[in-house]
Every structure is written in structure tokens, then in C-alpha cells.
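Meet our chain:
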Amino acid sequence: MRVLLISDVHGNYDALKSVLESARGFDYVWVLGDLVDYGPEPHMVIDLVREIKPEVLLMGNHDYAVAYNTDCRCGQELHDLSVYTRLNISYRLLTRDQLDWLRNLKHYERVDTPLGRVFIVHGAPSNPLYGYIKPDLPVNELESLLYEPREGFTIKQKLVSADYVIVGHTHIPFSLTLKNIKVFNPGSVGQPRDGDPRASYAILNLENMEFKHYRVEYNVDNVVKKLRELNIDRLVVEKLEKILMTGRVQ
């Protein structure tokens, strides 16, 4: 049984369509959040995700920010870009029904498989919306992110009850092991930031828990054209174009 793992689409409908067309032969779809902001078609991304009916569908920090009109708490280098596209693209194009739908997304999910329990989240178990599990962080910092989500007034935390943890949020694909827990990230469908601008996704085989990462090309020029047609700030379009073309923030 094969699971298609997708995360961080960010309004990039063209990239999402390319992934779905490329990754044929999967049995389930798990979506790790951040469907909106940055890209020109968040409304179409939401409609397509709703159409494919993922078995796991989670909220990302940008989904939360749009749904509740609050800050995304993303990195400083992209914060202004995030705020601008939220106000001038996401809120301009999303319907009331789509906003209500975003509010009902879960923050994390647990799935039991024959080979162990999987904890699925956008950010990190200890901080579902905003925690960044980056491979280049010190090991002790990475391990601190693998504790159970805080609930209520819980003070003492325990290691997440899982054999596998699947995350998104960083836009960087990776596979690593921490405290005997395998941690996977499929990267970003709509806005990769690891230097490879192709749409990123992964397939998880539940029969042997093999994680395979893939890239697929899509028409970036067409996405930039759609951004320009929205008649938003020219400098914003240029910044977005640079990220989409290079797969890097700077």
C-alpha cells in the first residue's frame, strides 16, 4: 500500500496537478498542510485537494493564519511576503466556505500500520504548526522537537509515541533517525527551497515503510504569468518569481 505524501502547496495549482499526474499508482494521500499564500491559485488548490479526498489532511501555519486572520509566524525573510500575499491573494480569492473548511483541519494525526505507529504533522510533534525540524540543527534541538504536543496545562512532556514521524513546513526534503524514530519530510510541492525548483513529493510504502522522494517539473513560467495577471505589486511578483525559478529564498 503506497501513500502519496504532499506538503506546502502554497497556492501553486500547476505544481500540484503535475505531482498528481506524475505520482500514479498510490493508494492513499496524506496532505501535511499549507495549501495557501504565496501562489496565485489557493482557491483552486483547495478545491482540488477536497476533490481527491485525502485520508490524512492537516493544517499548516499559513492555513491557520488565513483561517483565523492571524500571523503565520514564519521566517523573517519571508514574513512580509507572506502577509502581502495573504491579504492580496488568499483573502481575495478564497470563499467563505473555503475559509470555514480550513478552520476545521486537524493539527496532527496518528496512523497505526503493521510496521509501527506514524505521527503526521505540519511542523513538529512538540509544536504542530510552527516547529521547524531542520536537518542541520544540533541533534539535541532536533530531539527536543519530538515530544508529544502540549495539551491543556501539561508541564512534563514525553517522547512522541511513534515509530515514524512525517513533517513538512521547512520546504526541504529529508530522511533522518532521531531517538530510534525515523523522520521523513517530502519537501514542498509549490515552493521548494532546497535549490531545486521542481515540485517535491514522496511515496511511503506501508508494507516495508520505505520512503522515496521524487521531483517533477512543471510550468513555472505559467505560474508567474498568473501572478502578474492578479495585478499585485511588481516587486512582490519578482520576489516570488525568483523563489519559484531558483528553489531558494535568497
In short: The longest helix spans residues 76-93. Helices lie at 13-22, 42-52, 61-68, 76-93, 96-103, 139-144, 220-229, 234-246. The domain at 2-246 is CATH 3.60.21.10 (Purple Acid Phosphatase; chain A, domain 2). The radius of gyration is 17 Å.
